[in-house]
Design a protein that fits this description.
heterodimer; A: 688 residues; mainly alpha; B: mainly alpha; 3 helices; 67% helix
Chain lengths: 688, 67
């Protein structure tokens, strides 16, 4: 009887969730309120956390509160510290939350909010949160080792190296795509560019202050930095008005690209305390703070969803990104549903700080549910602006043209009502010259957030401030990622190249550093440049490539988790990781093959190359090329992109092959063959 | 009243710890306690050295970024 009483509230939550989900899914034609999405999402999270994650913890992993964690065994007060689970949750969440959950859902909104929402919810419950939780568990039982080392020890040396190489390539693409998002947001935007550029001197000042004036005062300097940032937004508004200053800060995409490349190089060789660390403080606190405020604002404003629940573009003809719902929706929304990069975080610092094994459920599964909620909020922010404005902002110039009149005509033909005046008025409201073709999520999200924030604070007059606040907030943590990623990529590259030429491996040598940094910056800079000059806007080409690589990494992580379950002799429960792994493999392999071989030049790289080759043979020029030289460049890039996509497919297939072999071996063995650190019984803070 | 005040300061402590750990700086007091309790014979880093040590650990070799 008490069993039933225990489950009754959860049943009520489940019913409420199902009802909300039904309301969202069955709404046809009439506008629904964003709160329905929020309620449906939160109920889904609560029920899946209560039941599914508990099932995984108790049956699949058999978490043992009496088993000592690495934090307890290796406690050194530095890397290994038993940490309160709420404190650690904050750390873990701040590490996994990035640009991904914000950008992906915004791009996916071109199909309407329903497909994206369903994938975010189903994906996180069955795939994303399971992956984060499993990898955290596996790493925690192995002294907090990294994903690469785990693959090496459980699967073998060769798959380990393959996975490491794959990770490096993924990182290069991520950096290029993130930088592209920044370029799209700042092109011809003196206000935005000034504000983002101001973060560099602000961070330098903070670095010097922390080092020499008031050493170690992180909280104090972060507050000072925050006020300086707000001042720079206000000042940016003045700059944009000024006739002498505005032209200085009005830059083309190509100019910003070169500035970013130069910045990436310099920033990643400077001492970390000077630029990277202080900007990391600002971006982390601003990120978490804005996410919390955005959640509160959505609850208070309760905006109606203006985007239809499904648009005509589910057939794959959408202007924002090309390709049909399957497989490309599942590639476009990566973080928020499932993200391979979390596997790197869950096998990074977090497993070294878990106080008690059973807390991994709250931190791993719970952390990812929270991230998923960020994705839902991004989807809400993108869907509560006028659909016409959404498409004006996210479609490439090759489709829209470059004037408000041309754009509104194209968008009206798609069936979304918009006048040229609405487009120019929105640009004016947010303090920009033009909002056309600012794909990449950030500006759309900024308009959505500006609308939500200004409803609560300051009305229309404040909209421009909030727009640039949102741009700053996203650019800030993207630039931190570019800086930190270039640094990490440099170390990886030095490791890889050091195999052939020993002196490069010395991370303290200046020449080695500069060469490896240069190569790393050149790699992402090259892709970024191609994206910027692409008439389809770059995001169109590269976001799917990013999604494929990121989801493939998730597939690899889930394959690893499956192998570990087989080796633990728990193959009975291996479906928990096999089902999401299989789904990710189906999606990413289909998408990867389509990106290479699809006959539509908007999707397939080879078909695109063919189109340019045919034109070149006939002596014709196709945009964006303005010379035969550039035509050849476009063809070369298509082959390069095709090679990258093929490479990712091969990496995944290779890891899958090794995994099947290892699983079969484990099945034949009559006892567990996994490489866990044997249990020992000293624990701290059991289950509080 | 007293217990409410101590609850409040405990909450503040957790808040500060969380914020610092978000940027890769664990609790310095815990480190001191650990060194005094387990390694009383070894030298203890000053707060400044401790910060530099954590900075190197966060951004030094072999660390990956976020998504």
């Amino acid at each position: 009887m008490s069993r039933i009483v225990n489950h009754a509230p959860w049943l009520a939550i489940a019913v409420l969730g199902a009802f909300s989900l039904g309301t969202v899914a069955l709404a046809r034609g009439e506008t629904i309120n964003a709160l329905w999405l929020v309620v449906a999402a939160v109920c889904t999270y609560l029920v899946s956390y209560r039941y599914y994650s508990l099932f995984i913890a108790k049956r699949v992993m058999r978490l043992d509160p009496a088993r000592a964690t690495p934090a307890v065994r290796h406690n050194d007060g530095l890397d290994y510290v038993p940490t309160n689970q709420y404190v650690l949750f904050g750390h873990h969440f701040a590490a996994i939350a990035g640009a991904g959950p914000l950008v992906g859902p915004v791009l996916a909104a071109q199909m309407g909010y329903l497909p994206g929402m369903l994938w975010i919810l189903a994906g996180v419950v069955v795939a994303g949160a399971v992956q984060d939780f499993m990898i955290l568990f596996i790493s925690m039982r192995r002294d907090g080792r990294s994903l690469g080392e785990l693959i090496k020890s459980e699967l073998g040396d060769i798959p380990g190296v393959i996975a490491l190489f794959g990770t490096f390539m993924i990182m290069v693409i991520i950096l290029a795509v993130l930088a592209l998002v920044v370029v799209k947001a700042l092109t011809n935007s003196p206000w935005g560019f000034f504000t983002v550029a101001a973060t560099v001197p602000i961070a330098l000042f903070m670095g010097v202050y922390m080092r020499f004036i008031r050493p170690g005062r992180i909280g104090e300097i972060s507050v000072i930095g925050f006020f300086l940032l707000m001042a720079s937004i206000l000042l940016g508004g003045q700059v944009a008005q000024s006739e002498t200053l505005a032209p200085i800060f009005t830059l083309t995409g190509i100019q910003i690209t070169w500035i970013l490349i130069g910045y990436g190089f310099v920033a990643s060789v400077l001492p970390v305390w000077l630029l990277l660390a202080p900007r990391d403080y600002l971006s982390t606190f601003l990120k978490v703070g804005t996410i919390v405020v955005l959640a509160l604002c959505i609850l208070l404003v309760a905006p109606p969803m203006k985007m239809p629940s499904m648009t005509r573009f589910i057939d794959g003809t959408g202007p924002v990104w090309s390709g049909s719902l399957f497989p490309f929706l599942f590639i476009t929304i990566a973080c928020g549903a499932v993200s391979g990069f979390h596997a790197l975080i869950a096998s990074g610092t977090t497993p070294k700080m878990v106080e008690n094994e059973v807390q991994a459920r709250f931190i791993g599964y719970g952390g990812m549910l929270t991230e998923s909620f960020v994705a839902i909020m991004a989807l809400v922010a993108a869907s509560c602006i006028e659909p016409g404005i959404y498409f004006a902002m996210n479609s490439p110039p090759a489709v829209l043209g470059t004037t408000a009149e041309a754009a509104s005509q194209v968008i009206n033909n798609w069936g979304f009502v918009i006048t040229p005046e609405m487009i120019t008025q929105t640009a004016k409201d947010v303090g920009e010259v033009s909002i056309l073709s600012r794909a990449g999520g950030a500006p759309t999200l900024a308009v959505g957030m500006a609308q939500i924030f200004s409803d609560l604070f300051g009305g229309k007059g404040m909209m421009a401030f909030w727009y640039h606040f949102a741009i700053l907030f996203e650019a800030l943590f993207i630039l931190t990622a570019v800086d930190a990623g270039t640094r990490a990529g440099r170390f990886m590259l030095q490791d890889l190249l050091g195999v052939f030429f020993k002196p490069l491996q010395q991370t303290a040598s200046w020449a080695g550093n500069l060469i490896a940094t240069g190569l790393c910056v050149a790699a992402w800079g090259y892709i970024l440049y191609q994206g910027v000059i692409d008439p389809l806007g770059g995001i169109n080409t590269f976001w799917p490539l990013f999604g494929i690589s990121n989801q493939m990494l998730a597939g690899i992580a889930l394959i690893l988790a499956t192998v570990v379950l087989f080796k633990m002799k728990r193959e009975r429960y291996a479906w928990v990781t096999m089902v999401p792994a299989a789904w990710l493999l189906i999606c990413t392999l289909t998408a990867g093959v389509q990106k290479v071989f699809h006959s539509n030049p908007a999707i397939g790289f080879l078909a695109h190359a063919d189109r340019f080759r045919t034109a070149a043979d006939e002596g014709r020029l196709l945009a964006p090329a303005t010379s035969m030289e550039q035509m050849r460049q476009v063809i070369f890039n298509d082959y390069l992109d095709a090679a990258l996509a093929s490479l990712f497919v091969l990496v995944v297939l290779a890891v899958l092959g090794f995994a099947i072999k290892t699983c079969l071996q484990a099945l034949r063995s009559d006892r567990p063959t996994t490489r866990e650190i044997p249990a020992s019984g000293v624990t701290a803070g059991a289950g509080d | 009243m007293g217990s409410m005040k101590s609850n409040l300061s405990r909450f503040r402590g957790y808040f500060e710890q969380t914020a610092k750990l978000m940027v890769g700086v664990p609790d310095y007091d815990t480190y001191i306690e650990h060194m005094q309790g387990r390694h009383p014979d070894q030298p203890v880093m000053t707060y400044r050295e401790f910060l530099d040590n954590r900075l190197e650990a966060r951004y030094g070799a072999g660390k990956a970024g976020c998504c």
